[in-house]
User: Fold these one by one.
Assistant:
Number 1:
Amino acid sequence: MSILLTGGAGYIGSHTAVELLNKGNELAIIDDFSNSNEKSLEAIKKITGKDFKFYEINYMDREKLEKVFEENKIDSVIHFAGFKAVGESVKEPLKYYHNNVAGTIVLLETMIKYNVKKIVFSSSATIYGKQLSTRYVETMERKSSPSAYGNTKIMIEQILEDLYKSDNTWKVAILRYFNPVGAHNSGLLGENPKGIPNNLMPFIQKVAVGELKELTIFGNDYNTPDGTCRRDYLHVVDLAIGHLKALEKLDKEKSGVYIYNLGTGSPVSVLELVNTFIKVNNINVPYKIGARREGDLDECYADPSKAEKELNWKASKTIQDMCRDSWNYIQKNIKGE
Ligand code: UFG
């Protein structure tokens, strides 16, 4: 039996592939390389010493997707694929609804055709929007997002819940990621976006290697201890392991929709993250304080207790580990991929 990973060459998908292969699973990976490349596939093989099936396709291509199901005994799907640039999604919403939402529908229809009804979906803490408490619990309602990207995550969660209502033999795990950072400690896998990064850690990495001049911290007048925003950064390898635990949970259950926050439960400010990076790596990261970025929340972090209790999952890596591994990776992969 194989596990199908959509977007398996990407940042989170590739780290999950490593953990799954290390546990002896068979994998079929599909990816269209829209935000990844072949190098990560080679890295997965090198790290694990194991092979897997790979198809360079977009998951909206029904015919080619069906072929993947024909050629492999797919037992479950981990669905990572999707566009994820928040700013771009505001400018080009249809691109996001088309790829993320319509693409997921094609995937689910294909799964039904081949009688595969077990799926783990990559959702995001963004679905919570602004809440009264900054410690987010799975029972909080989903709030319409200012970005089309955020709304695609909300819609797909809803689609999965409706699908389960229509056929309660489905097994669905929805994983709400907080802020994944870090890299595999081999330095072979990590995140290295092309151009100017949108997210904090990739930006810090590029300043540290001298590709960008300085980091701008978006505002220091937030309602937090040091005035900079606080987030729940978690190591991508911890996150990857969360997917294995979610699959194990689905294997144990008869059916159902299970939703989990994946985060550490500890908020860290922008300044704390930058200063930790500087300290553990003994490298300078010049920064200045700039204006606020529109739409940023003062603080948001996970209540991870449900995942701990039901999945037996707990993030184990520290902020120091995240900063060390991010630096190790970027030094070995200076050019953006
Ligand atoms: N930040 C800076 N300077 C930068 C980039 C970011 O100060 O150059 C700050 C932001 O203002 C924010 C923090 O660093 O306070 C983290 O920003 P990121 O863009 O790295 O992460 P976000 O929390 O804004 O967004 C992340 C994911 C989204 C997801 C969202 C909510 O990138 O996909 O969490 O879950 F939607």
Number 2:
Amino acid sequence: MMRYFIGNWKMFGVPKSINILNKINLFHSRDKNRNKYRIIITPPFTLLETYSKYFKNKKISIGSQNCYQKEQFSSNTAAISPYMIKSVGATYTIVGHSDNRSEGDTNKMLKDKVNFSLKNNLKVIFCIGENKQEKKNKKTLAVLKKQITNVLSKKLNKKNIIVAYEPVWSIGTGELPSADELKKTTIFIKKILKGIFKQKSPAVLYGGSVDGKNVESFKKIKEIDGFLIGGASKSSKKFIDIIKNYYR
Ligand code: PGA
């Protein structure tokens, strides 16, 4: 089963930060497990074009962290569409990260973002996750189900979709779900996705405070197809440690 290690840089990086990716790329090229996983990095928009061109024939894929909910061009200041992202060579985009949901991304907007991205041949990393209050009120599964069914539908090509489960309370906090809890939630998410796509579920990743240490406790959960990594993806050593310890 193909695994994914996705590094989400958020608001981090300048042109010379490409050194971090060079180290990761070098590690990958010598890793005996390299055919078992894919590496995707999402730098800020400012670096998309140079990084995409540089890694074009290498093993790291480049994606954006978000996109605008219009297909090509429009009059929205500072907006960047899937067509524009694809045109500079990126191959993925994150849609629905909790940072952007909390800034106002609605299900309707997310649906447009997913549709236009796929239409423009960008693969989608679709993020879902409950917040602390929802978890406390035992609403996690209901919230996740709604987030999925409001945006994804049967007509989409599931081969180009990756779902990332990121509990909002776990992002950047060091707090983690228990392995048991995470296994149950992941199985639930895959069941909903199978219901939509009628056969196999797309890949489902976990994200939220993943590091080289705690990844060991998650590797026994076979249902998890990989990880979306924020903080630890800004250091080549930390990111490589996650991959090394996952396969150890
Ligand atoms: P984190 O971020 O690994 O720093 O918790 C994950 C994310 O927001 O994608």
